[in-house]
From TrEMBL:
Pfam families: MgtC. Its main location: membrane. It comes from the Bacteria. The chain crosses the membrane at residues 20-37, 46-65, 85-103, 140-157. This is Putative membrane protein. It is found in: Cell membrane.
Length: 243
């Protein structure tokens, strides 16, 4: 028994518990906290706490998968695959992301935020694997996507044909819908989908609502143009890339 205890690794500072692994955890913590801060500023459900916990926990699971079973390994007797535990992160984050995505008024919301949670897990795994340069690079790419792509998409949409989905609330029985369709026809916007909102009818007397999808050139200006029509009470636009 004394010989076995003498061979035991130290309680602290054993394999996988050095300064390098601590640094990798802090890298995962810092990078995913940046992503979470961006999501928080955008008012999304998975903010700083969620993204940071996911990223740091993924890094820890990766380190456990790499080093957590070194004390039971024996040549020719006990051999383990260091990727088996880390592989479960991918399926586990899939369930977490599914809980973020919701379907409301004919539109899907939360896709980008769910993808960001998946991304935070990947960044944490890269940091835990010691691939710090890749973790930093993907974090930089995240900000390029969320900051740079949306203005670019809007710029292209204003010059090319595109589509937009809106929920329009209006006063019922005053010919508002006809004026909406006439405004779209004048600008050569095609109505590709139209659905009545029955909840709007019961919410307030004299109010009606529709979910409409328009396509055409300069469609990015459609919400502002239609909001100026007499009798329109409000317009909520659904982004092409809903968060």
């Amino acid at each position: 028994m004394d010989v076995w205890l003498a061979a035991d690794p130290p309680f602290f500072g054993g394999p996988g518990q050095g300064t390098r692994q601590i640094a990798e955890l802090f890298v995962a913590f810092g990078l995913t906290a940046l992503i979470g801060l961006e999501r928080e500023l955008q008012g999304k459900s998975a903010g700083v706490r969620t993204q940071t916990i996911v990223g740091t926990a993924s890094a820890l699971i990766l380190l456990v998968s790499k080093y957590g079973f070194s004390d039971v390994l024996q040549d020719g007797l006990v051999m383990v695959d260091p990727s088996r535990v880390a592989a479960q992160i991918v399926s586990g984050i899939g369930f977490l992301g599914a809980g973020i995505i919701i379907f409301r008024r004919g539109s899907v919301h939360g896709l980008t935020t769910a993808a960001a949670v998946w991304e935070s897990a990947a960044i944490g795994m890269a940091a835990g694997s010691g691939l710090l340069l890749l973790a930093v690079t993907v974090t930089a790419m995240h900000f390029l996507v969320v900051v740079g792509f949306l203005p670019l998409a809007r710029w292209l949409t204003s010059r090319l044909s595109g589509s937009v989905t809106m929920h329009v609330s209006y006063e019922e029985g005053k010919g508002v819908m006809s004026r909406l369709l006439q405004a779209c026809e004048r600008r050569q916007w095609q109505l590709t989908d139209l659905a009545a909102d029955t909840a709007e009818l019961t919410a307030a007397a004299g109010h009606a609502g529709v979910l409409m999808t328009l396509s055409g050139r300069g469609i990015v200006n459609a919400p502002m143009v239609l909001a100026g029509i007499d009798g329109v009470l409000g317009i909520h636009q659904y982004d092409d890339d809903p968060d």
